Amino acid sequence: MTAGQMVTSPSGEEVVLGEIGQTVLLDNARVRVWEVVLEPGEFQPWHLHHNPYLVLNLESSPCHMDWLNGDPPRHIEETVGGVIFRLPSPVHMLTNDGDKPYRNRLIELKDLGEEAVGDPPAGSPDSVATVSGLPVVFDTDEVRAYDVDLRPGEQLTLPADRPAFVRITMSGSLPDGDVAYHPAGQPQLLTNTSAAHYLGRLIELKYLGKG
Length: 211
Description:
- The protein is mainly beta.
- Helices cover 0% and strands 44% of the residues.
- It is built from no helices and 18 strands.
- A hairpin with a 7-residue loop joins strand 15 and strand 16.
- It is globular.
């Protein structure tokens, strides 16, 4: 976490950094998940990422990122349900330029950044097969994201011999944006107990898979 850290801009101005999100929803040795919510015109103050991270959009609005080093702004408009992977980058801030709220789940991958507590198991992306029956919506060497759509009463089994998963609810039997962590070695049975479709994203931490 970066809140309180002092940095200096190219003009010599001293800036006190804020956090990368408003609320920590989940934090363990592997990942930290933040809620980021910006109302129209609001901004997330200057901050710095120490770990690679994923962004899962829950509510979209046009935004832009300003860079403390003076680089041109980056304008972004994410897709609801879309997943983005980002490496640590220079100090920046995020502003909501639209007329709707912006909301996401930001997942820090501690094993790949400065907060690693030890070397993760060596893995090979080709050695990690997809979870049967789930559409893949995002895939890199490090992580893979699946679309989860369960009708009322349907179940999904997360196999025990796979790398860890982070599950984020989009809508359904749990509050939207709800987050859970499923470690390797523990088979999990997910059941949609509501009368509506369960929609979510399942993030597989491929880099934890043993090659």
